[in-house]
Design goal:
The chain is α/β, with parallel strands linked by helices. Helices cover 25% and strands 30% of the residues. It is built from six helices and twelve strands. The strands form two sheets. A nine-stranded mixed sheet has the order 2-1-3-4-12-11-10-7-8. A hairpin with a 2-residue loop joins strand 11 and strand 12. It is globular.
Length: 201
Amino acid sequence: MIAILDYGIGNLKSIYNMFKKVGVESIITSDIETIIKADKYLLPGVGSFDYGINSLKNALFFETLEKEVLENKKPILGICLGMQLLTNSSEEGKEKGLGWIDASTIKFDLEDKSLSIPHMGWNKTNPSNTNDIFKNLEDNRFYFVHSYHVICNNEKNILARANYGQIFTCSIYKDNIYGVQFHPEKSHKFGMQLLKNFGEI
């Protein structure tokens, strides 16, 4: 069972509905006991970095989540801002990130000024590492909405890249910790397959 973490941020219901469509059991929760019993976690997120990280760290379940992920090695998937929160820091704010993956989040600085920021819409992704989360996806197209992107300090943490005026990292991982910059819950059959894959990890 996947616990969709409710800390006041993210498209919780749409993520739940996508899991339901692909036959993966999930629950939207902030309950500590439910989080302990869960097999995996989904960390959603929209909005600003500082608001997101403060909301998460102030959640009553945060210490429990940290123990389950870092000590008990339960898988977690961060989506959009949820992925950025996994990093050390962001140019968008002053607060420290979780630091679960050695990376930083920076704002797009594109030479091609005809490209608008935020990067919004469908884009193809190129997995750079063999990983089950991208299995059975012949056409890796997903829906993006973001103005910031992640820079990994260790290339082995890069799971996929995309191109928007420049090559950027759009998926990261380390051991049991995964992040995707795009929105699987808005990505139709492609997002459904990715969430199904996460459910099967």
